[in-house]
């Protein structure tokens, strides 16, 4: 299993790392929120740019990014436009999605970009290639807010992300039952043991799935999303408690 290194952060070994999303509308709120992260255990910050009121103006996006990077003081940054089709705040056409992600990767201000794996193969490959050309890592993603797909389908989606060339495949699915959570965890383990040559991220959403956000070290998910002020998806727990739970599980596995 290869690890992925961003700044001083190594993903894919040891205790799962904690990513905190910023979901805010204005520049002031975004920067304020980032400033509040100094007091909590955060390994990586995700800027969910689909929430930003100025997202359609690249200059405004770059302006926020440069202030954000200054406030984060070296904490790696993941740039994510989550489309409405996958649970985000707004829709975007694939050409604009590609242009935005490529332009942001070229600024040198972000460490990783999120690329939705089902945006279209050509678009996804184009962004991944451009990001890699700029030394930016790619998290490929897929979100199923309605259900937890069958095992083969979860594995197919994760393997497709790997085939597209993403550094870290990620899938978030919604459970309709407790066995759905078990299937997501089993799929994670099978992916890691049989198919993956790189770290992956998986989660089962909502309260029933919250256990999957804690148990990544057991089943093979390298990163977990925790909430600081506002959760960006159902089932995210507070960062402080999340960190304690990850450490407890880590200790029990030694
Ligand atoms: O892809 C993900 C995972 C997520 O949806 C979650 O369930 O924690 C939260 C999103 O902000 C992030 O982009």
Automatic annotation (TrEMBL):
Q: Which GO terms describe its molecular function?
A: 3-dehydroquinate dehydratase activity
What InterPro entries does the entry give? Aldolase_TIM, DHquinase_I, Type-I_3-dehydroquinase
Q: Which Gene3D superfamilies match?
A: Aldolase class I
Give the record's GO biological process terms: 3,4-dihydroxybenzoate biosynthetic process; amino acid biosynthetic process; aromatic amino acid family biosynthetic process; chorismate biosynthetic process
UniProt entry keywords in alphabetical sequence: Amino-acid biosynthesis, Aromatic amino acid biosynthesis, Lyase, Schiff base
For this chain, the family text in UniProt reads: Belongs to the type-I 3-dehydroquinase family.
Biological role stated in the UniProt entry: Involved in the third step of the chorismate pathway, which leads to the biosynthesis of aromatic amino acids. Catalyzes the cis-dehydration of 3-dehydroquinate (DHQ) and introduces the first double bond of the aromatic ring to yield 3-dehydroshikimate.
Name under which the protein is recorded: 3-dehydroquinate dehydratase
How it assembles, according to the record, is: Homodimer.
Q: Pathway, according to UniProt?
A: Metabolic intermediate biosynthesis; chorismate biosynthesis; chorismate from D-erythrose 4-phosphate and phosphoenolpyruvate: step 3/7
Q: Which PANTHER family match?
A: 3-DEHYDROQUINATE DEHYDRATASE (PTHR43699:SF1)
EC numbers listed for it are 4.2.1.10
